[in-house]
Amino acid sequence: MALLTKAARGTGDVLPSVSYKNRFIESTMLEIGNNFGFKEIRTPVFEHTELFNRSVGETTDVVQKEMYTFEDNGGRSITLKPEGTAGAVRAFLEHGLFNEPMPMKLAYVTPCYRYEKPQAGRLREFHQFGVECFGAAAPAADAEVIALGKHIFDFFGIDDLRLEINSIGCPGCRKNYQAALREYFNSNIDDLCETCKGRLDRNPMRILDCKSPVCSGIAGNAPKILDYICDDCQAHFDSVKKYLDAMGIEYTVNPTIVRGLDYYTRTVFEFVTGSIGAQSTVCGGGRYDGLVEQLGGPSVPACGFAVGLERFMMLLEARGIELPAENPTDLYIASMNDEANIKAAELASQVRQEGVACLFDTVGRSLKAQMKFANKMGVLYTAVLGTDEIANGVVNVKCMADGTEVPVALEDFAVNFINMSINKAVDDFNVGDVDVSSVLGGLL
Fold first, then answer.
1. pLDDT(440) > 50
2. Beta-ladder partners of 303
3. Is residue 217 in a domain?
4. Sign, CA torsion 362/367/370/371
5. Minimal CB count within 10 Å: which of 175, 300, 344, 430?
């Protein structure tokens, strides 16, 4: 029975006391993305397994160890998506978006799934805000994507992030680098984990991303990719840095960044922090010029990034950054009897149609209990309906902040209430008693 009342390991519930923060963060990120020209896309939570094998890479930890893969009733291998880019590329191809004017800029908020050891900032079900820019090969696109990430962090007042960038070259110049890696790791092969021994011939760069402390220690002295990139990739990287300099974005070149997914080419970057422990990477991305073609489409350059939203929330909390409070309920219509409660339901319906948050009694509470409940909910205004109020067609509406009452006609009640609320808020503001927005709540 305990299993029925406990969330699966590595997952978590987002309760109403927190969900409004998530909603604010997600909508703000999408809005900022829209200001950069990125339009929202929504893709399915699961895809054909082959999509991730071909895009993320069969030698990555994600594919080898972390994917939630199952066979559906039709015998097809299906995987819950471990990241957002592959699904966005699949949608880009399926719907022929490559025929649209380029660059095609997409943004999304999506759940992702990886089977990992649960810890702070690393869950089995987590969420990402991500952007993908298709059809722009110039270094300016890399820099703009990075600038978008920084703009988001700046908006929320996060000032302790460090931008680290690197270039991992193109497939052509990486051949020499992979040869150098094989030679280096072969001299340490006895100390490598079994997984990395298997990677040595197929993709030695994945050893650089191994989470084993022993392999990580060996990888620390491995050859650096920047010593092996070709002239074109070096020129691209130098140009990205010039754009970042022009936009006033500080960065550090970190030649050890390779990212954990195989589709990256040339520019890779991470925004890292020291405020949330071991899970220091809050945002990661880069360029993946060959991915669209690799998945069966035309040759279309692309770049993007993803922000882990759970880690982002941890960072806000660690930095003591407060988000705007949730708008309180505007009105509670209390009732003294059954007839009055039916009238309260009618009035509440009218008020809600005007976009005003309104509650009335649905559990049969006494008037005293109703008022106590309204107070606990932080309602801005209350009105008490009884036989006399219905007969006279007028009810007194009480401002819970200062106790003042104003009579409001029941006919056209919604419009009358809204006008009364606005007038009171303006009057209070003029005498300096209260901020207008806190009084109006959801009315503006």
1. no
2. 133, 287
3. no
4. positive
5. 430
